[in-house]
């Protein structure tokens, strides 16, 4: 029941379980072998593939007929693209350039309404990452300042997968309570117990091992009372890290993503305390409108220490309440109002946002 407690904490008590607004989901960088039409279109397709893999949810995303049609005409969805002014050092071809591609989010979403797939919005719960790095027979936790190569690979992979991460403090208290062996053990209780202090809903534990020729990886993902594991036998460091991030994304997105064409709608009034001035009201409205399910959010007035907001949403109210509770902005207050037409929240101080 330990991990069930973590899940409940994460879903309903926003002051402990933090979410992040992931920026740049519809923007990416790829390498174009040249500026020819053929190579440009190939780069567009690669870029759209990268974007769809971090916003769509479902089985065999790239085999979906709607996705395949989109990839065949990837240039149609581009809002802006630009080549770097110098050659890429990531490709042996001297004419290769890094290309930055920004897609039109609404155009992509409109197309995906005809797909069986779901879409995961920008607001996503943070995943706690415990990463063990093994080199020359020595195992140690990831230390960003001491392992810049691994740290850069983690940041790059997390951005590519659209996965917001938290990192353990590894302070004196944690060093006394948990070891590398505990993280790698098949017995997960010590890991879950130490992780309680972070109030997360998901934990990703991994080991990357540098061998003579390549890197190998072992990953375990703890979420919703389940543990899933996967491995990679040999690849680059970036591949070893990315397979972990993409695995976590795949499991979380299936839980949190929604169909963009859901017709079940509703509205609810949020009474929010702690929101005084215009800046606070704007922050609440901006947060609400950033949520995938929310179709409209407006301030409708104030009363006795509360500000009232009318929120129109798709899907169902229970799902909305779960989503509201995982952010760093609003914290559920008072009695259990689940299912009622008026919900009470407290605006958290901006330092938590």
Task: Walk me through what this model shows.
Helix 2 (37-55) runs antiparallel to helix 3 and helix 5 runs parallel beside helix 9. The chain folds into three domains: 2-22 and 124-256, Ribosome hibernation promotion factor-like (Double Stranded RNA Binding Domain, 2-Layer Sandwich); 27-119, no CATH class; 265-352, Alpha-Beta Plaits, CATH 3.30.70. The protein has 353 residues and is of the alpha+beta class. The strands form five sheets. Strands 8, 9, 10, 11, 12 and 13 form a six-stranded mixed beta sheet that branches. A five-stranded mixed beta sheet has the order 15-16-14-18-17. Strands 2-5-4 form a three-stranded antiparallel beta sheet. Helices cover 34% and strands 32% of the residues. The chain is built from eleven helices and 18 strands.
Write out key terms for the chains shown.
single chain; 353 residues; alpha+beta; Double Stranded RNA Binding Domain; Alpha-Beta Plaits; 3 domains; six-stranded mixed beta sheet; five-stranded mixed beta sheet; 11 helices; 18 strands; globular; disordered N terminus
Topology:
Elements (H helix, E strand, L loop, with lengths): L1 H11 L6 E3 L5 E6 L4 H19 E2 L7 H8 L5 E10 L9 E7 L1 H8 L5 E2 L3 E3 L1 E9 L2 E4 L6 H14 L3 E2 L5 H6 L2 H5 L4 H7 L6 E9 L4 E9 L2 E10 L1 H20 L8 E9 L4 H13 L3 E10 L2 E9 L2 H8 L5 E3 L9 E6 L6
Parallel strand pairs: 8-10, 8-11, 14-18
Antiparallel strand pairs: 1-7, 2-5, 3-6, 4-5, 8-9, 11-12, 12-13, 14-16, 15-16, 17-18
Helix pairs in contact: 2-3, 5-9
């Amino acid at each position: 029941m330990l991990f069930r407690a973590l899940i409940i904490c994460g879903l309903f008590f926003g002051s402990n379980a933090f979410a992040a607004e992931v920026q740049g989901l519809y923007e990416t960088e790829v390498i174009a072998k040249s500026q020819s039409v053929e190579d440009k279109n190939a780069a567009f397709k690669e870029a759209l593939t990268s974007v769809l893999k971090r916003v769509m949810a479902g089985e065999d995303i790239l085999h979906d007929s709607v996705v395949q049609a989109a990839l065949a005409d990837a240039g149609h969805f581009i809002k802006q693209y630009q080549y770097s002014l110098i050659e890429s050092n990531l490709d042996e071809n001297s004419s290769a350039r890094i290309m930055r591609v920004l897609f039109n989010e609404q155009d992509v979403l409109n197309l995906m309404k005809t797909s069986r797939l779901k879409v995961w919005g920008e607001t996503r719960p943070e995943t706690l990452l415990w990463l063990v790095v093994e080199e020359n027979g020595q195992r140690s936790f990831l230390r960003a300042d001491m392992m810049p190569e691994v740290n850069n690979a983690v940041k790059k992979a997390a951005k590519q997968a659209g996965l917001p991460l938290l990192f353990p403090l590894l302070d004196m208290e944690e060093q006394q309570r948990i070891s590398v062996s505990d993280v790698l053990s098949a017995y997960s209780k010590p890991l879950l117990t130490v992780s309680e202090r972070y109030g997360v809903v998901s934990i990703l534990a991994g080991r990357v091992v540098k061998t003579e020729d390549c890197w190998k990886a072992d990953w375990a993902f703890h979420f919703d009372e389940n543990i899933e594991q996967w491995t990679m036998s040999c690849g680059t460091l970036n591949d070893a890290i990315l397979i972990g991030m993409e695995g976590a994304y795949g499991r979380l997105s299936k839980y949190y993503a929604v169909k963009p064409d859901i017709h079940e709608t509703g509205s609810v009034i949020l009474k929010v305390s702690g929101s005084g001035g215009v800046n606070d009201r704007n922050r609440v409205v901006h947060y609400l409108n950033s949520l995938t399910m929310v179709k409209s959010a407006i301030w409708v007035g104030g009363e006795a220490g509360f500000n009232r907001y009318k929120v129109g949403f798709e899907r169902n109210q229970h799902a909305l309440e779960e989503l509201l509770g995982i952010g760093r902005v609003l914290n559920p207050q008072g009695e259990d109002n689940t299912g009622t037409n008026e919900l009470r929240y407290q605006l958290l101080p901006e330092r938590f946002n």
